[in-house]
């Protein structure tokens, strides 16, 4: 399994004028290429697009050679994603505009790393910048990780951070050779509920995420209703804090989940495939914000890469009826579930609804293992994941 992680390095830049001008020129190049793609009416491959825009990027905008290549690849990837969203009827063809806040670098070509210094290619050639080397970063800078395409990011306060992308191969046990499974049901009241093959279970972060969302939602409503300058300053101050707190909570919960799996000798963790769930489900106006701000994909991603580091595989199973199916008699009915209570109308089996979901996910992950064995398949490839 290829594990990809992003280490955030805080840079020590007394004079940021050169970096500001470099990022500005890079953004100007991206907006120029974006306008070209928009006029073409459809995305082009990076090689074909580079032949069209490369002379302008180099001669008129003044970008270095590798910068120009990175601009073309980044814009191409953005429009390919837009095309997928258009096919899914989620958006329409539009011109994408970039802001001067990020810049992509390729390791060995336009950035290097040496001890506590980063060498970056700027408009005036290669420059070295110091970064704060904290103890938790040492494991990624000891030579066991390979560096890939990384980003220079400018925060709202003008401070620059370097998002260093690291990757390495980790050994995980194949699904066909596994015997102990664990299902993880992610939700909004309880952030996650886990259940193993031998029926050991644990509930994680009950109600804290939902309370946090409600607190910040009510705070924004009060400030927006006032509309004063001081209220707008406070809204700007609060911007991003909720997201950072949720990300931190997902990191802590995913770590606890993987530790619980290690303690119970789990070989495979089963997760629900929740892609497109926001489009498939309907919610009331009152619950819409909570539903759409549910960071389930981030939590699942954190579980996957943390499990991979411990040698534990992950599989995604069909989420249909996991909270309505009785794990004892397999009877499916909406009447089985009443909010957080589950009582099977057929056999009378009763349990917490989220725990029912976790046990059904574990059962489907185990069934998936036997399906692979019958078909003679090897372990399917695992998605590459990134985190901070």
UniProtKB/TrEMBL annotation:
GO terms for biological process: DNA recombination; transposition. It holds the Pfam family OrfB_IS605. Coiled coil: none annotated. InterPro entries: Cas12f1-like_TNB, RNA-guided_DNA_endo/Transpos, Transposase. Residues 296-361 form the Cas12f1-like TNB domain. The keyword rRNA-binding does not apply. It comes from Methanofollis aquaemaris. This is Transposase. One of its GO terms (molecular function) is DNA binding. The lineage of its organism: Archaea, Methanobacteriati, Methanobacteriota, Stenosarchaea group, Methanomicrobia. The keyword Nucleus does not apply. In the C-terminal section; belongs to the transposase 35 family. In the N-terminal section; belongs to the transposase 2 family. Keywords: DNA recombination, DNA-binding, Transposition. Residues 163-277 form the Probable transposase IS891/IS1136/IS1341 domain.
């Amino acid at each position: 399994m290829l594990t990809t992680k992003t280490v955030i390095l805080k840079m020590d830049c007394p004079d940021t004028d050169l970096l500001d001008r470099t990022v500005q020129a890079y953004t100007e190049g991206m907006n120029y290429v974006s306008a070209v793609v928009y006029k073409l009416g459809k995305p082009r491959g990076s090689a074909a697009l580079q032949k069209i825009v490369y002379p302008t990027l180099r001669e008129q905008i003044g970008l270095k050679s590798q910068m120009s290549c990175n601009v073309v690849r980044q814009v191409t990837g953005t429009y390919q994603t837009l095309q997928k969203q258009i096919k899914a009827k989620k958006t329409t063809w539009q011109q994408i505009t970039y802001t001067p806040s990020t810049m992509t670098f390729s390791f060995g070509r336009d950035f290097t790393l040496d001890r506590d210094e980063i060498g970056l290619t700027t408009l005036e050639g290669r420059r070295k910048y110091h970064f704060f080397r904290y103890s938790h970063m040492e494991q990624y800078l000891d030579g066991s990780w390979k560096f890939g395409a990384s980003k220079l990011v400018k925060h709202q306060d003008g401070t620059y951070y370097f998002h260093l992308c690291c990757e390495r191969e980790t050994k995980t046990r194949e699904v066909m050779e596994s015997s102990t499974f664990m299902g993880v049901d992610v939700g909004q009241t309880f952030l996650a509920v886990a259940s193993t093959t031998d029926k050991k279970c644990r509930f994680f972060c009950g109600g804290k995420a939902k309370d946090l969302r409600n607190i910040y939602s009510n705070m924004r409503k009060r400030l927006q209703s006032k509309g004063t300058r001081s209220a707008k300053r406070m809204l700007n101050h609060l911007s991003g804090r909720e997201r950072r707190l949720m990300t931190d909570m997902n990191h802590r919960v995913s770590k606890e989940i993987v530790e619980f799996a290690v303690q119970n000798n789990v070989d495979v963790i089963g997760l629900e495939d929740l892609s497109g769930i926001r489009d498939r489900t309907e919610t009331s106006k009152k619950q819409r914000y909570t539903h759409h701000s549910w960071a389930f994909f981030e939590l699942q991603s954190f579980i996957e890469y943390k499990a991979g580091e411990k040698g534990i595989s992950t599989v995604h199973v069909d989420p249909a009826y996991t909270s309505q199916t009785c794990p004892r008699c397999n009877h499916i009915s909406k009447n089985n579930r009443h909010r957080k209570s589950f009582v099977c109308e057929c056999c009378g089996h009763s349990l917490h609804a989220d725990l029912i979901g976790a046990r059904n996910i574990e059962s489907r992950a185990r069934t998936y293992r036997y399906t692979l064995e019958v078909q003679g398949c090897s372990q399917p490839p695992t998605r590459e994941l990134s985190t901070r």
